[in-house]
């Protein structure tokens, strides 16, 4: 299961990480009990055709160290919610709850772009920045289960206000929201330079979206390319800081903004190389695109439930 603010995605996953069947349902957003009911109904539907041994739930929130409770979920009605027991009681199967970015990281480590790399950082660059860390072949969760929230590293003192309550967090400068903010600023201040982006949104800069910026950049629009370059350089800056602490040999980049490919990763690699500590005396970490796409969360959750 991959449970987010808008959708519940579920799949039957075999031991090789192959999704044999999948379905989606809207996420009820006002009731924790209704979310558990929806998860149970989806499991029942899939169990009608497959022998299911266990259920892994990748949840968009803070998960406790026992992988049983959702301590907090910003986009769902989960506050110290005993999700494992609520779902297990409904379906009569073993249940494991995991942070969705951790599940994505585990899937890429086991079956995707992280295969063969025992120390890696996976970053989901979407509305914000989600992340999962694998060190020595083990998923890193932290003492209380809520480690790897790298999107909330403070990069700019007294910078842009973040949803976490702090200012200057990394995800305010290297995410889909940041991309849209920068693009709208450019479109409003220099309409001539941003003509392709403005054409895509009917001339109203406030309606400009991230995919429209990416598409304009793919077509060679200089202003759109400039936007992705800025986001990419901030991404590289943060990866350099993480390297000082974790020393991974690979960064795997997923999420909607990563659809821009080298328009994002090129500037990220360049800035990473410029700022990583000891850059002249250490092997460089690789920076690659995730391979499993939108299925990574449910594949990782299933594998974590299996093991």
Provide a descriptive summary of the structure in words:
The chain is of the alpha/beta class. Helices cover 38% and strands 20% of the residues. It is built from nine helices and 13 strands. α1 (32-47) packs across α2, α3 crosses α9 (296-306) and α6 packs across α7 (222-246).
Radius of gyration: 20 Å
Strand content: 15-25%
Q: What's the count of strands? A: 13
Instruction: Indicate the low-confidence ranges by residue numbers.
Output: none
State the gist of this model.
The protein is an alpha/beta fold and about 300 residues long. The protein contains nine helices and 13 strands.
Keywords:
307 residues; alpha/beta; 9 helices; single chain; 20% strand
Write the layout of secondary structure elements.
Elements: E1 2-3, E2 7-13, E3 19-26, H1 32-47, E4 55-59, E5 62-63, E6 70-72, E7 79-81, H2 83-91, E8 95-99, H3 100-111, E9 120-125, E10 129-135, E11 138-140, H4 176-189, H5 195-200, H6 210-218, H7 222-246, E12 250-254, H8 262-275, E13 286-289, H9 296-306
Parallel strand pairs: 1-4, 4-8, 9-12, 12-13
Antiparallel strand pairs: 1-2, 2-3, 5-6, 6-7, 9-10, 10-11
Helix pairs in contact: 1-2, 3-9, 4-7, 6-7, 7-8
